[in-house]
Amino acid sequence: MTTTAKLDVQDNNPVAALQELMRRMLERGGVGGVLTPVHLGRGTPMPTLVTDPAELALADPLAPAFPMNGAKMLARLTKGHSGERIAAVMRPCEIRAFIELAKLNQGSLDNVLLISVDCLGAYDNTHYLRFKGADDAIQTTLGFLGKVGGGKDTARDGYDLAGACLVCEHPVAAAADVSVGLVGLDLTAALPVMAETAKGEALLAALELEDWQPREDRAEALARLVERRTQERDAMIERTAEATGTLAGLAEYLAGCVNCLNCRVACPVCYCRECVFATDVFDHKPWQYMGWARQKGMLKMPTDTVFYHLTRMAHMSTACVGCGQCSNACPNDVPVMELFRTVATRTQKGFDYEPGRSMDDPPPLSVFKEKEFEDVVSHMA
Amino acid sequence: MSNRIGVYICHCGTNIAKKVDCAAVARFAGGLRDVVVARDYQFMCSDPGQDLIINDIRNLGLSRVVVASCSPRLHEKTFQKALARAGLNPYLLQHTCIREHCSWVTEDPGEATAKARMLVAAAVDRVDRHGELFSREVDVLPDVMVVGAGIAGIQAALDIAKSGHRVHLVEKGPSIGGHMAQFDKTFPTLDCAACISTPKMVAVAQEPNIHLMTCAEVVEVSGFVGNYQARVRLNPRYVDTEKCTGCGTCLEKCPTKVSSEFEEGLGTRKAIYRNSPQAVPNTPVIDPLHCKKITKNKCGACEKFCPTGAIDYHQVERFVDLEVGSIVLATGYDTLDPTPLTEYGFGRYPEVYTALQFERLNNATGPTQGRIVMKDGRSPESVAVIHCVGSRDKNYHEYCSRTCCMYALKYDHLLKDKVGHHVRVTNFYIDMRCFGKGYEEFYERVQQEGVTFIRGRPAEVTDRAIRPEEEGKLVVVAEDTLSGLPVRVPVDMVILCTAMEARQGASEVARVFGVAQGQDGFFLEEHPKLGPVSTATDGVFLAGTCQGPKDIPDAVAHASGGAAQALALAARGRVAISPTTSWINPEICVGCRVCVGLCAYSAIEFDERRKVAVVNEAMCKGCGSCAGYCPSGAAQIKHFNEPQVFAELEGLLMDLERPGAVRVPVEDGDQGPLPDEHPARESVTN
Amino acid sequence: MDAQATQADAGRRRDAQTAPSVAFEPTIVAFVCNWCTYTAADLAGTSRMIQKPNLRLVRMMCTGMVDPKYVIKALLSGADAVLISGCHPGDCHYINGNYKARRRVKLLKEILPQFGVDTRRVRLTWVGASEGNEFAATVNSLVEEIRELGPIETRGLKAL
Known about the structure:
The structure holds 3 protein chains of 3 kinds.
Chain A: E1 4-8, H1 14-28, E2 33-38, E3 46-50, H2 71-78, E4 86-90, H3 92-103, E5 112-117, H4 125-132, H5 137-145, H6 163-166, E6 178-180, E7 190-195, H7 198-207, E8 210-211, H8 217-243, H9 247-253, H10 262-266, H11 286-296, H12 305-316, H13 325-329, H14 336-350
Parallel strand pairs in A: 2-4, 4-5, 5-6
Antiparallel strand pairs in A: 1-7, 1-8, 2-3, 6-7
Helix pairs in contact in A: 2-3, 8-14
Chain B: E1 5-10, H1 22-30, E2 35-41, H2 47-60, E3 64-69, H3 72-85, E4 93-97, H4 99-103, H5 109-127, E5 136-139, E6 144-147, H6 151-162, E7 167-170, H7 193-206, E8 210-213, E9 216-224, E10 227-234, H8 249-253, E11 257-259, E12 268-270, E13 272-273, E14 285-286, H9 292-296, H10 301-305, E15 318-324, E16 326-329, E17 333-335, E18 352-354, H11 355-362, E19 382-389, H12 404-419, E20 424-429, H13 439-448, E21 452-455, E22 460-462, E23 474-480, E24 485-491, E25 493-498, E26 500-502, H14 506-513, E27 540-542, H15 552-572, E28 574-577, E29 582-584, H16 594-598, E30 604-607, E31 612-615, H17 625-629, E32 635-637, H18 642-652
Parallel strand pairs in B: 1-2, 1-3, 3-4, 6-7, 6-16, 7-8, 16-27, 18-25, 19-20, 19-25, 20-21
Antiparallel strand pairs in B: 5-28, 9-10, 10-15, 11-12, 13-14, 17-26, 22-23, 23-24, 29-32, 30-31
Helix pairs in contact in B: 1-5, 2-3, 5-18, 6-7, 6-15, 12-13
Chain C: H1 7-18, E1 28-33, H2 37-46, E2 55-60, H3 68-76, E3 81-86, H4 97-111, E4 122-126, H5 132-149
Parallel strand pairs in C: 1-2, 1-3, 3-4
Helix pairs in contact in C: 2-5
């Protein structure tokens, strides 16, 4: 049974309401700091660790901007002990990625409260900046949100949400301690703050918010949203699968790849300190290149691009949360997110694995059973 | 500086040369990058063959060697030693197989030659990436720990002690002897179990090299082969073994009677007790759960009457830390509790016995002083012996317990012998498995004694009589599968041949000692045929039934095997640790600890300070479970690392043609589609 | 493609036209464990069990050390199929390396078909040390199967 508290919205400003929620966490929630996006200048809001409630004036977890997945930042804040508890008010895909990182001991849930806010999606970086123009950042967010959460995904003032958001069927993070509801709700009245775990329950009790029994509009609207996005996702997967249905198609798809490894730097679940493709294992000698070129009469440079992406699929596709930061980071606009989500759908289904769902689900390649997947074994003789 | 590689193609008489054009392969190899000499020779493994390599290393300054001959499983060591004799690190060799995998199995000589060339190309590419590796030797601590003092543990301990090495023998129970001490006679010779086991138990007590600990459990083991640290918990006995003379006065004076585990519930013991007058050690033990002094602070009779003041109600558990070079596990087995097999009525009908209960009924020190009588004191007129209770049964244990057929025959004989020839004995069996020395003869003998054998697993044991002769009897209902007819056999007594199964605490023991369990719960040996006493953990050996059901001769033989393995380590005093282990590069490791969980040998530890995984090379077997996972490539198996495997792959596939080209079988090994003088070709080198 | 064919290639093609059945010879890379399948391959050899020459063995200590990268690399380098073969379940020399290999093969079998790589091109089998005949039969049937499948796409891909 989850406890729900009421977060009043004053002056039609849900952003201010969330700032109030974070202020209470700092002042009476036993929380030493809050990690959340803050508008720091004219650009996109960045993940910021706020310890002084006075610094929350420009905090904006609802801004339709997503310059980076904050999971890696939260991992840094929780790997080892700071001695203090922090809260992270983040998007579901950030929380889900953080859960994956925590499973791999890159962060810890011990001293963190995960606050998930219903995700209405975000623009990619350039679109956000154009959408905002010279307007006030918070007002821009309020303009994006409108009166009812999650009314539409696209074409606000002619701008579409980022591709990853349009096809994201996870507007809620299952593993959060506390969820803040937006979808389908009147954002000008009050927001439900729901405790999902015992930790969340304790936090809510400390925040001294009023208990609340909101109307059930959210569940229905969420279901509609998820259904819409799932359809979009499936259509996207179909398009991508068609384009990459052969190795030639894949090579063509990845033709713009310059092996910069930006996608793996931006990827919240690519957790290696150094990508193996950046190590000396892939430092080839000049005469090796000549040899390869001779085999086919030519050699595309840089080499190992298809190899790199296939390997990355093997390494992280089961953990892919679909945040789309890979596409965001690509200098040559390779639609990396579409490719990885397409493969991830297969691999995650294959292992019946949903990344970020629960700490109790071990990463598929970290465990094994005596009796399983017997269909992948051939008996030829 | 580039390597100087020598390549040696062996003819193996005609074994290779008949199919593979060795000279052509050598010519091809001579054209490969960094190859300074390529020769073919009749027998590379012969002394002159090896000298060829040694001289080339010395005269031509070779830094790497490739030998293409038989399987490396045969001669890799031979050639590694040749390299060592020439002063080259043995791991700078790559041995590739062109006999078993090529000349002997390929029909067409051209194809065989082409395949040999690719194998050699792969070996040349690979060896270029080899590095020097050094085996490490560590000292082996001279002492051995044996865990469990049933007949297997006793045998292992005595064998080791005889060699002069010290043995720490750890027994959980208050006395040693295990199940064998409960038995009466042993099959097929019918010698009395006590007569043959008691001298061994006494020998343990008297052996100066054996440090016996009873009421003791190993709670923690760390270290690796040759250097194990074990912590043993000594549970309180409440009787000072130094002061106790074993006079037995306390046993008489204690007023509290408890059902006896040793008598399998058929008899009672006191709250202070010992399993039998021959128990070793002879010191009684107080059962703290039932002693009135300990539970309620009343009574105190034993203390009052003890002539030496040996009773100590205030004893507490103590810990002993041991350092040993190896460990022999002899933790034994449990017998299946037949209560869940409700069709056999155990626990419901008083005259249904387990096999161990029947052993106690037979035993002169048992509850009936060895008389086979029913609970009412009468002798049974008819007895049914049901085989395979919980064995060969998918619902309980799929395996055969291996001993039941034989002890069932022993019971048949004992019934005829002790109660009288008139006793009707009926066996219900699935198959008679009498495979040991003298076993089939014993079966023959028992058959001649007039025992009935019905092939069929009984459906039930019931007291519902439907015929007059069944009144007041237990009726065994079965199908005789040989005649296909249903049978109902009324008997006075039923004996269930209960399965041997893994000890209840086996998984905890497996965890403490780092050994694996098979699906049946028994400890897993290193190899089912060739490594039946060793385990995947070097320096931990198995003895007796903890590895699987065994009879006494097999358990004793197995135990001697375990002792020999432990002694082999102790006698040499040094153990070489293979260098082809995993290594985790701390610069790359990000500390996700997945490898720690994947390692079957607990050989990877997490360094909390540096936040990286660290391989304990002494425990690592080099299986590569960690490397196969590690996405960053931080974990690598030495001698099987990524650059080496990639290089081998590239060499192996260097002949794949340009698009559109097709390959046809080559008639002449010399004129294949492969560029013999490829000026520059791919391969990974430093 | 014709334009790129060298003279030698053209010559071979003429041969191929006269005998189309030998037009395509698959190349198969096999990662086999030292203790079971490599030993079985030795035994097949000792027993002179004739095998197609298309299989090229890479000796690994255990299937558990076969990094999925090795399989991907082999396929991208033009191997028409990759065989991974180790000890039967329960017989692994390293207790459970084969189970870990099975999960990794499962993963590859989810990824590669997305790009048109037939799942039959990545094969996992268990061949025990005593099963020389199994090994030879596995090789021969695999070669036939891959021959029917045709060459892997990477062979013809220039820009990869």
